């Protein structure tokens, strides 16, 4: 079982300086840590001045019977799931797909969470980045963190969960989508919803020169400067507008992106 000091030492090996970070993590893949996700968060806060993570709440999503064409969604197929939708509230837990760490971060007494009803972020000591989010620009906290010289940390995970690539796609002009969320004020339209991430590992060769890695337990921690990542994704999509899409024949979002590029 990994001890706190081992986790902290691995984070320090990355040598990210005084940069704040956005984190994606899988404790299952790196192995057990004494103290669990709380211990991992404590180590992150000792090494980095600010820590942020996505605390998305997909369970708030609701789908109308009709909507825009080429929106990466089957409106009829989604109708039965509307009865399962929950109202967004500030204390709604992050979706389990985010992993354990984002929920632990959200519950930290020093954390602040944004109010986007689907794509919220939680952070500690990153008020300026969090304040950048709007309904129209849900991934703006990542852009602001990049302007601050921030890094993305991938702890036991790969680029298929790297939300910063979605931000870079939007910056590059890639098609975004419209989704809807259930709130106490009614159903809210949420533009700027990102596409599929299953093809994101294809960006790895363009990042190797800037990425830093450190072993941790059964896996690795990888750190990439956000400005370099955004630049690499934009260059990749400029060279090939269909890059980073998945190959699944039934992926409606990737199909819509391909159609928009014709």
From TrEMBL:
Task: Report the catalytic activity.
Answer: a 2-deoxystreptamine antibiotic + acetyl-CoA = an N(3)-acetyl-2-deoxystreptamine antibiotic + CoA + H(+)
Annotated family: Belongs to the antibiotic N-acetyltransferase family.
- Species the sequence originates in: uncultured Chloroflexota bacterium
Q: What keywords appear on the UniProt entry?
A: Acyltransferase, Antibiotic resistance, Transferase
| Superkingdom per UniProt | Bacteria
The UniProt GO MF terms for this protein read: aminoglycoside 3-N-acetyltransferase activity
**Could you provide one GO biological process annotation from this protein's UniProt record?**
response to antibiotic
The cross-references to SUPFAM superfamilies, in alphabetical order and at most eight, read: TTHA0583/YokD-like (SSF110710)
Q: Which PANTHER family match?
A: AMINOGLYCOSIDE N3-ACETYLTRANSFERASE (PTHR11104), SPBETA PROPHAGE-DERIVED AMINOGLYCOSIDE N(3')-ACETYLTRANSFERASE-LIKE PROTEIN YOKD (PTHR11104:SF0)
Residues folding into a coiled coil are none
**Protein name stated in the entry:** Aminoglycoside N(3)-acetyltransferase
Q: Which Pfam families does this entry report, sorted A to Z?
A: Antibiotic_NAT
What EC numbers are recorded for this enzyme? Answer: 2.3.1.-
